[in-house]
Design a protein that fits this description.
Length: 185
């Protein structure tokens, strides 16, 4: 059994005449190009710790299989705005799992996409627990947290936005939640 014990956020941008190379450059800027990335769905494990990117990258080794939730967007259209965002919703009880969302959009600012990915993660977490949830009613602006059926939920995001290369080269943005796992059993 593999259970992630730590997670970090990262993001990157790449531009190149080839789509795959553009993606590779985005991975490089994010610092995760040297790993074998396996996409996973959206659960933040109980007791998992959120750590800084720099700390997480020191733990991982080149060639290692690394699980992550990734949002990716690309364009070859000059000046077209692209965005990739990862949202995280964490309940205050660390023994309970959280939720991660991925969002990719066109023509949307990084702030708007980031807010949306956080709202989406909070909504998914609420539905998992069977809680009726209205983003606008649940948000506490002053405390910057969601109130969810008596539970306070903290959210955050990592988002990368860019305009398509003016020369028509491929432009790729990525945002990722990268897991560091402990092998059990």
């Amino acid at each position: 059994m593999i259970i992630p014990t730590q997670m970090f956020f990262t993001k990157g941008l790449g531009v190149h005449k080839e789509s795959l190379q553009s993606f590779e450059y985005a991975l490089r800027e994010a610092g995760i190009e040297k790993f074998n990335i396996v996409p996973v769905s959206s659960i933040f494990p109980p007791k998992c710790r959120l750590i800084p990117r720099k700390e997480g990258l020191k733990i991982l080794r080149p060639g290692q299989i690394v699980h992550c939730v990734m949002a990716k967007n690309s364009t070859k259209e000059p000046n077209r705005v692209i965005t990739a965002s990862i949202g995280l919703a964490l309940p205050t009880d660390e023994k309970t799992y959280g939720y991660i969302s991925e969002h990719h959009s066109f023509g949307e600012s990084a702030r708007k996409a980031g807010d949306y990915s956080e709202d989406l993660a909070a909504s998914m977490l609420a539905s998992t627990f069977g809680i009726k949830f209205d983003v606008d009613e649940a948000w506490n602006e002053k405390k910057q947290v969601f109130k969810m059926s008596g539970k306070i939920v903290k959210t955050r995001n990592t988002t990368k936005s860019a305009k398509g290369d003016p020369k028509g080269n491929w432009t790729t943005v990525i945002a990722a939640a990268v897991f560091i796992s402990e092998h059990i059993g």
